[in-house]
Structure formats: structure tokens, C-alpha cells
Amino acid sequence: MAIAKPVSSSVELGLEDSVNDNMTAGRRTPFEFASEPHLGTDISDERTTLLAHGLDETEVEDFSSLPWWKRPSVLWLLPPLLPFTLAFGGVAVPKINLMLTLICREYFSDRAAKDTTFTYAPVILGVENPQCRIPEVHALVSRFQLVMNFIAGILSAVVSPKLGELSGGYGRTKIIGLCTLGTFLGEVITALVATFPDTLPVNLFLLGSFFDGIFGSITAAVALTQSYAADCTPANKRNVSFGYFHGVLFIGIALGPLTASYLIKATGDVRVVFYAVMACQVIMPIFISFIAPESLTKERQKRNREKRNIKPLDINKLRLQDFNPLHLLKPLAVLLPVADKTVSKTGAGKTRVKLVQRNLIILAAIDTALFGVSMGTMNTLILYVEYVFGWGNIESSLFVSITSTVRVLVLLGVLPLLTRWIRNRRNNTLSEAQTNRGSDKLDIGIIRVSILFEFLGYAGFCLVQTGPLMVLCGVLNAMSAMASPTINSTLTKHLPSDRTGQLLGAVGLLHALARVIAPTVLGFVYSWTVGKLTQTVWILLASLLFLSFISCWFLLPHVYIPGSSVEHSSNSDNTEQPSENIEESI
């Protein structure tokens, strides 16, 4: 449907307006990404007048004059990310089974202490313990994981916005390194518990969750790596760049369980997995902090610190109202942007701003739901298949590997080819590649199809009763892998580039909140329905995904707030430009 909207040429929002034809292309790195950050121009507040189109030429020169090994690129993050995600995927099943073993041992020990006539087979670490596959033990494990996720999620939600702010003022790489350091410390605790299971209590896992959350956890790390990618990637290639991150993540999740299974078989000792995980995860903070080039120049960091008054935490300036829970939601204000007053005071301008706000809210809500589903089901799914189908470490690891392999193929094969095939057919100008133009129909189409696949996968989980069909539904679910990177890429296309860090910081906050709420709700549901109607958790998730699928049909393409608008004061006669009828395809 085409809607004609009269918009003043001096104040139009989100249209494909002309730009300076003299803009030149920046040099390219050996990684074939534009090395300079496409950050547009700085603005001190969303309500101040936006500046002229195009990249800051000084900023471009800063990066183009550097040797390639000092130029930022998304591919700098991929080598250290692979062992990090390999460890993340490899430790998932052994860690859950370690908790299951320790909690099962405590359960039977407590029961035997209360009933002297009760006897049970010994619970041995690192081997199959079929006596533990009972609803009571699974319910206890689910509730314990609920507490772990609650601690890590709450702390991450509190610190993630501050970390996102600091990354803009002091550099992305330092803060990413800090986030991954917290994950490493959490796995050190896991290795200690696995090494001394008869001495250290299972509750020590909660300390690991504390370390993980206080440094922002993986939610902050993912948001900041995407900020790094947005700094040095043209807008029309961001979904592919974000897809690389997600692809490497699922490569690790695919190969990690297989590697862990091989180590367990080869050594006969599950503790070797936890030691290998520590060795892999220490690489990321070291490489990111000391080797990877920073994506923000020193000058831009300084301007950000001065413009936004960014400072490290000052204990002496803390006030009681700073601990108000409502202050936690302040970073979400970026999802309700306000354009320049001279722009938004017109009828057409107000309408366009409202459409941008609606798109941002819908996209953020869907992304939060998908992330919550992913985080909430990660542990529950392993418990479910082991309880319903009697799978052990090897079978569960193989299931995770198969589904993750499909995700990798979709992210590293289907998504780039689809993007290149469709977008290369268009005659994009340089400015279109380097400036935000809002989401297009390809972005929205990918989001809709991906959510449909995920809905069908979880609907299948509700119905299947055999292991092979469960794997088939898992594969169907994995075909939705394009949704998350496309949504994150699409979000960044709605606002000026210097708001990318703030926007993805808000996404990180929503992810942190989802990490608290989703595992809490799903863990509670599973713990109360296991052994009764165990599929209840999948029914709940299928319903949520159905609502997400419906809501994504309200997204509109090509609405955005550009990085510039013409100031009224720039017109010497202060006369209003003639209106134009602009047709927008919806």
C-alpha cells in the first residue's frame, strides 16, 4: 500500500535524501570490511539539531593512515571468540550433570538420614546415575539453576548499562575484556567444585554466578562486541557481521560438546573438560585487551567522555536514589528517541518519529523474547531430554552439536548468501552503504520467517515422543538462527550511528532482565510440572513465539531518524522549502 505524505524537504525524516556525491570511499583492510567506524556525526543530545550527513573525515583519516594490523575490523574478534564459545558449548552438559550429581547425592543422603531403612545406589561423579533420573531431583536442580541465573542476571542488569557507557568513553576492547574475565572466573569456581566434590559444597556455584554477573556476563559481552562491529561495519552489512558473531558462537556450541565427549572418553575423567574450559576462556580477555585494535579513536573517546560526562564509578558520589529500581530502566529511553525539535514539530515529522519508536519497541521486545527463550531453555532442554528420553552426556552433547551445526550453516551460509544475492541486485550508492536507512523488506522478511521456524520447533517439542523426532524439531528450531543478528542489525539502522553503543547497551539491559525472568519462570514451571505434564514449558514458549510472530507483522520498512537534518537557521531567508509528495511503500 502506498501512502503519500507531504513532507517539507527541510525537515523530512527517514527518507533516502541526497547526500554529498564527493564522499570518498575509505581504504579497506585485508578482512574486506571498511576499517573506519561509520559513526556519523556527534550530537550532544537527541533533542539538539542533528549535523550534516556523512562520515567525519578526520575520523576516517585516523584509521586509513594506520597499518592494517592496527585497523579495527569485526574479524579481529573472531579468533579469540572461537575458543571462548568452544568452552561455552563444551561445558554446558558436563556442568549441568555435575550439579545434577551433587544435588542428587545430597538428596539421597538427606533422605537416608531421615529414614534409616532407606537404601540407594552410590552416586558417582562422571558416570551415568539412572537413580537420579527422578522428578524430585530434576525439580531441585531446576530450582538451583533458577537461583544461579537470578544472581547473575540481576547483577548483569545493574552493571551492563554502566559498562556500555564506559565502552564509549574508554574504549570497547577494554570493557569486552573485563566482561569475559568475569566468565572465566565463574568457570574457575566450577573447576574447583569438580576437583573437590566431597569437600566443596554445591552452593559454591552461586559464587561463580556472582563473578559472572558482576562483570556484566555474556549478555554485556555480546552487546559490546556488536557495538564494536557496528563501529567498523557499513549499515547494510551489519546483519552479516552480527551473523559472523552468532555463527562463531554456534560453531563453538556445536564443536564444544563433541570435544568434551572426546576428552571424557579419552581420559575417563570429566574434570579434564573443566580444566580445558579454563584454558580456552582465558584467551579471550587477553587477546581483546592487548592485541585487538580499538574501534574508537582516542579523540572520539575523549569527546564522548566530555559530551556525556562519562566517568568511572565514584563511590563518594553515590546517592540513595541511585539504587531506585526504576533507575535501572533509564537506558531504555533510547528506544523512545526524540528527533530535532525543528523536525519533530511538524505533523509528518511527529508521525515518522512515532513509527521509529514503534519499530524500536517491537524489535526490542521480540529480541528480548528470543533471547529469554534461548537462555531459559538452554539448561531446561538438557534436563528434559535426559528425563524423558533417558539420554546421558554423550546423547545430550550430540543433540546440542547437531542443532548448533544447523545454526552455523544458516548463519555463515544462508544469511550471507541471501543478503549478497538480494542486496547486490540493487544499485546502492556509497552513502546508502554507510548510513542508516532503517530496516528494509529483506530484514523484516528474514525476521518473520525465522520466528516462524522457531515457533514450529517449540510446537513440535510439545508433541514428539521419540528421540529422533526431538532432534528433527531441534533442527527446525535451529533454522531460526538468522533472527537474532538481523534484529540487532535492524535496530541500529533506526538511529544515528553515535547512538549505537547506547542502543545496544539498552539491548544488553533487556537481555540481562530476560536472563533473570525467563529462566526463573521456565525453571519454576519445569520444576512443578516435571513428571506430571512435563511438556508444559514448551507449550508456554510456543505461545510466546506465536505472539512474537504476530507482532513482527507490525514492523514498517524505511523509517528512521537520520544522522542529520537541515537547520532552519541555515537558510538565509528563513523561508520554508516547498513541500514534496513522497511515496513510502509499506
What is the CATH-assigned architecture? Answer: Up-down Bundle
Residue ranges: pLDDT <50 for 5 or more in a row?
1-62, 429-434, 564-586
Task: Tally the structural domains.
Answer: 1
* Strand/helix succession: EHHHHHHHHHHHHHHHHHHHE
Shape: globular
Would you tell me the structural class of the helices and strands? mainly alpha
What is the helix fraction of residues, given as a range?
Answer: 55-70%
Count of alpha/pi helices: 19
Q: Give the DSSP E fraction (strand runs of 2 or more residues).
A: under 5%
Mean pLDDT: 77
The fold-level CATH name is Growth Hormone, Chain: A
CATH class: Mainly Alpha
Alpha carbon gyration radius: 25 Å
In total, the number of strands is: 2
Please state how the strands of the largest beta sheet are arranged side by side: 1-2
Distance between the ends: 6 Å
> Sheet with the most strands?
2 strands, antiparallel
Pfam families: MFS_1
Membrane topology: Multi-pass membrane protein
GO molecular function: transmembrane transporter activity
Subcellular location: Membrane
Please give a handful of descriptors for the protein shown.
two-stranded antiparallel sheet, mainly alpha, disordered N terminus, transmembrane helix, MFS, transmembrane transporter activity, disordered C terminus, globular, 19 helices, about 575 residues, single chain, Growth Hormone, Chain: A
